[in-house]
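ingest -> validate -> predict -> emit
validate: passed (alphabet ok, no gaps, 125 aa)
predict: started
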Amino acid sequence: MIELAALYGVLRGVAMSKGIVSHEDLSRLYHEATGDWHEPQERTWHGPLAKLNGHTRAAGLPPLSAVVTDRPHREDNYEPPTSGFWESPGVPPRPRKAADQLLVWMGFVNLAHRATWPETLAGLG
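emit:
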């Protein structure tokens, strides 16, 4: 079971360092933080990331899962998430055009990078 408090701690660190991680990176970072391994497929992380977005939204913060996306298709060139992120709490439906997806996603990444993330969030357990 993925612990939301630990997941928050991992992604808080990514956002505060102005980073973006793939699902593979997230699995590795979560394992390093907790000792628990979870497969890097997006479906593993979809539910916990959406729940975490609900908590960040309740705290008046942007969706923290914006800093998680699919593995880059080209070296160091991240692209918007294919699913999971879209329509989670605080996130609109996925735009139809790829250029719009990139624009909206990068806006959320920027918000996550600029946010003042508290040490912990209420209700994460």
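Helices lie at 4-16, 23-34, 42-58, 98-114.
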